Each structure stands twice: as structure tokens, then as C-alpha cells.
Amino acid sequence: MTLQEYKTTVLPMKDKLFRFAYRMLNNRTEAEDVAQEILIKLWNKRADLAEINNLEAWSIRLTKNLAIDKMRSKHRRTEEIKEGFDRVAGDISPDRAAETSDAVSRVRTLMNGLPEKQKNVMHLRDIEGLSYQEVSDALEMPLNQVKVYLYRARQKVREALLAAENFGLDGAI
Fold first, then answer.
1. Phi, psi dihedral angles at 147 (to 5 degrees)
2. Which of 28, 90, 135, 142 has the most C-beta neighbours closer than 10 Å?
3. Threshold 0.85, pTM exceeds
4. Per residue in 82-100, pLDDT tens?
């Protein structure tokens, strides 16, 4: 793989890898480190990348494994999540931007309360836009299990949002 092929094939995935690592680690600095390490690994293995059928799913699997290693590390550093992680387009009204930000924050909080596998499946499918098969490949789980986890995750988030709306609560899973 040439530098140009790397730029057009691998580099466009960097934000997706970062967001997935961030979802798992809840730490911006560590997520940046994970994404950077994966990009370096991909560059170092560029000669072998042609043999990989689905590079994106394989890269996400590497990201997942490295993030798990970071979580298990005894030397894990923690820092507070900075507000404003999710940017809202500037062409909408401030009140609509606040509503959108609140909704995104509420969904993010509810997703963080899901079991780890459901959270990862929902993030890859609904936020990153991967196909069911790509999620299956990335998380190394059967396709039917991906669908079950996604259904259950969506159902729990939906129920919590409806309960919060009906009862004026913040909702919890």
C-alpha cells in the first residue's frame, strides 16, 4: 500500500476509530492514543492490508481490543469528559441547539448505562453507521447476536426516554 492509498483508505477512518475508543474509554486523551496507535499499526502492516476483506471492521476490532487493554491497565488515567464534545450546526436557533444538545446528552447517558456489548453494538450501528455485517466482524460476534443486542439496546433507550418524557425525569436504564 502506497502513502496515497493509505491516505484515501485508512485516514478517513480515524474519526470513527476515535469515537469508538472514546465510547469505550470515556476518556478523550486515551481514546486519541488508541486511535493513533491503530493508525500506526495499520501503517506498519500496510503491505498485508490487501489480504484483509473488510479493513474498516478489522480496524474497529483492533480498536476494541486496544481499548479493552487500556481499561484493564493498572495505570489508567482518568479525566473529566469535556462539555461540547458533540458539536451542533451553527445555522439553527440557540434554543433548538440547546434542545438538541440536551437530547444528545440524554441519549449518550442512557447508552453509557447499557451493558457493554449492547453499548458497543448500538454505537457502531447507530452512530458510526456500520452495516450489521461490519458490526458482526468488528466485534467478532454472530450476526443474529448483533441484531438481538441492537434491538435490546434500542428498546431500553426508547423506554427510558419515554419514561423520562412521561414522568419528567432524566430517565435511567
1. -65, -40
2. 135
3. no
4. 555 555 455 666 767 777 7
